Structure formats: structure tokens, C-alpha cells
Amino acid sequence: TITDLSFVWLSLAHNSLSGSIPPEFSNLNYVTELLLNNNKFSGIIPRGLGELSRLRVLDLGYNQISGTIIHEIANLKLIEAIYLDHNELYGSIPSEISLLPYLKDLYLDFNNLNNTLPELNGINSDSLKNIQKIWIQNNLITSTLPSSFGTLSTLLELRLNDNLMIG
């Protein structure tokens, strides 16, 4: 099976794969890039993906994934890019995302994420020290911009348009 292999890069992007993301993908212990974008995956994000300790890129964009963003995402200590855009995700953005020191790109746009934006300054000086792009446009965010966004010195793009923000 695919989980018996020890490759470091898996791309199944731009196919017509459907159904839930197989939970067996959580056993791909050596994978650094998991690209499942531009398919027809539905269901929730498997919690086990948060155990892929070598993962640097997670691309689940352009699918039909629903549910909330898993809090286990904070376990991805080497992650550089998270693409969850163009899905049907709802709920809050987990504040645990602020604990990812190597994260450069965070794309959560075109979902149904709601509530407020989390404080993104984490609990130590390494938090989000490399962040360059945060795309959260076209959601249902209803808060003002937290002051912690002003401390993100490496941030190049912040897209919050087409939400329900106030203030």
C-alpha cells in the first residue's frame, strides 16, 4: 500500500479524487510535502495529519473539505506552508497556528471561517517569525484586526477583504 512506502513528496493534485482524505495518509512519516489540492475530497481534515512531523507543505486547497481546522496543526513544527483555501471549512482559526515558527504562507481564503481572528503572537519570540502571507479573505470573520498582527515584521501580504469585519 501507499503507506508502506517511505517517499518524501506526494502529489495527487489536479485529479478527480473524491471521498474523504484517507486516514492512512497520517502514516506517511517521511513525507515533507503532501499535495492533495484541486480534487474533490470531502469530509473533515484527518487529525492524524497533525502527526506528520517532517511535513513542510500541506496543500488541501480547492476541494470540498468541511469541518473545522484541526488543533493538531500546531504539531507541525517544521511546516512552511498551509493551503486550506477554497474549501467549506467553518468555525474559528485555531490560535495554535501562531506556534509555528517556520510558517511562511497561510492560505485560508474562500471558506466559511467565522468568529474572530486569533491573536497571532504566540508564547515565545520564535512564533511566526517567518510569516510572509496570510490570506483569509472571503470568509465570515466578524472581528477587528488584533493588535498582534502589527508585530509580524516579516509579513508581506495580509488579505482580509470580503469578510464581515467591524471597527
Give structural attributes:
seven-stranded parallel sheet; mainly beta; six-stranded parallel sheet; single chain; 167 residues
Terminal Cα span: 53 Å
> Taking Cα atoms only, what radius of gyration do you get, to the nearest Å?
15 Å
Helicity range of the residues?
Answer: under 10%
What is the molecular shape?
globular
**Category by helix and strand content:** mainly beta
Question: What would you note in describing this structure?
Answer:
With 167 residues, the chain is an all-beta fold. The protein has strands at residues 9-11, 18-20, 33-35, 40-43, 57-59, 64-67, 81-83, 88-91, 105-107, 112-115, 133-135, 140-141, 157-159. The strands form two sheets. The protein has a seven-stranded parallel β-sheet, with no helix packed on it. A six-stranded parallel β-sheet has the order 2-4-6-8-10-12, with no helix packed on it. It is globular and about 50 Å long.
Could you give the topology of this structure?
Blueprint: E1 9-11, E2 18-20, E3 33-35, E4 40-43, E5 57-59, E6 64-67, E7 81-83, E8 88-91, E9 105-107, E10 112-115, E11 133-135, E12 140-141, E13 157-159
Parallel strand pairs: 1-3, 2-4, 3-5, 4-6, 5-7, 6-8, 7-9, 8-10, 9-11, 10-12, 11-13
